[in-house]
């Protein structure tokens, strides 16, 4: 293999035993036809199935393929960054393991990149996910556009990145990684290429509703101060409402409309303003928690096994 391949392909793998053989076959075929040299890095994120044993078998058959297994499950973005850190290519592509992304789109993305871009996304005019997931995804993207103006609205996990830009991603020190958030900091020379979005070849998505919600919250808190700004405006608004309420009570008392203290209004005020205070404290606590996580200097990922060293 060349010291510096023309293209490195990073595939974060999680419970993908059923689709890996087909994915590697298609990747190798399209790369041998279109790229002078290439490597494929399969980063197994401890999904608990037989993916790692299959990766070891594939690495023995194909010299262009390298398998990496992490010490535990660190998440898709951490696994992607691990692969990028190990990649040697002039260009680095990332692609999912479930065959929803067509490997055959890589030549078109490379042609677009050669027009002078550092980053090219493969975007899907029509997504194959269920309508509810497409709807929530669009809502989240609009929220991200407001919170992170520099973020590309059409980001996907099908990416082609200039090698020097991609390898700079591992210098970011955050316990809640978001590859596309990092890329928005590193370059604004990006483009997109329309590609088809296929149905998942086997099984169902590993992203549950809970994981998607947590991922959205992590992005908002880690890459934006929007929650803090909203908490500040809520605090100001509640103060104004409380002051107006106080003035109205004093006026009503002076003119004689109020003759006795009202237990219901008192408790309503306590519950309302107490709830707002707890909300604001919760938002601030999220940021403080992330500061604590970052200061602990925990590794983003740890490699347990590597087929290149066996």
Automatic annotation (TrEMBL):
TM ranges: 230-251, 263-288
Protein name according to UniProt: Glycosyltransferase family 2 protein
PANTHER family in UniProt: UNDECAPRENYL-PHOSPHATE 4-DEOXY-4-FORMAMIDO-L-ARABINOSE TRANSFERASE (PTHR48090:SF3), UNDECAPRENYL-PHOSPHATE 4-DEOXY-4-FORMAMIDO-L-ARABINOSE TRANSFERASE-RELATED (PTHR48090)
Segments forming domain Glycosyltransferase 2-like: 8-137
SUPFAM superfamilies: Nucleotide-diphospho-sugar transferases
Organism superkingdom: Bacteria
A family per Pfam: Glycos_transf_2
Keywords of the record: Cell membrane, Glycosyltransferase, Lipopolysaccharide biosynthesis, Membrane, Transferase, Transmembrane, Transmembrane helix
């Amino acid at each position: 293999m060349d010291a510096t391949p023309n293209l490195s392909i990073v595939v974060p793998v999680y419970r993908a035993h059923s689709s890996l053989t087909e994915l590697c076959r298609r990747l190798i075929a399209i790369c041998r036809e279109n790229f002078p040299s290439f490597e494929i890095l399969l980063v197994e994120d401890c999904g608990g199935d037989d993916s790692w044993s299959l990766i070891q078998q594939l690495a023995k058959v194909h010299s262009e393929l390298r398998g990496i297994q992490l010490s535990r499950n660190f998440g898709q973005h951490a696994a992607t960054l691990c692969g990028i850190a190990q990649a040697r290519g002039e260009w680095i592509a990332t692609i999912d393991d479930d065959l929803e992304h067509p490997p055959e789109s890589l030549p078109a993305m490379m042609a677009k990149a050669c027009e002078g871009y550092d980053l090219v996304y493969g975007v899907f005019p029509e997504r194959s996910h269920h309508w509810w997931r497409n709807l929530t995804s669009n809502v989240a993207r609009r929220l991200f556009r407001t919170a992170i103006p520099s973020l590309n609205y059409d980001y996907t996990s099908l990416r082609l990145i200039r090698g020097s830009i991609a390898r700079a991603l591992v210098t970011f020190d955050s316990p809640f990684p978001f590859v596309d958030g990092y890329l928005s900091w590193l370059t604004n020379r990006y483009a997109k290429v329309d590609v088809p979005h296929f149905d998942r070849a086997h099984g169902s998505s590993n992203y549950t509703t809970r994981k998607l919600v947590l991922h959205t919250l992590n992005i908002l808190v880690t890459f934006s101060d929007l929650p803090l700004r909203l908490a500040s405006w809520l605090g100001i608004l509640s103060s104004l409402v409380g002051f107006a309420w106080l003035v109205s009570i004093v006026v009503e008392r002076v003119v004689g409309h109020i003759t006795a203290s009202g237990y219901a209004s008192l408790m309503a005020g306590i519950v309302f303003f107490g709830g707002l205070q707890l909300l604001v404290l919760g938002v601030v606590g999220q940021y403080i928690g992330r500061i604590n996580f970052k200061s602990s200097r925990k590794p983003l990922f740890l490699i347990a096994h590597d087929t290149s060293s066996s």
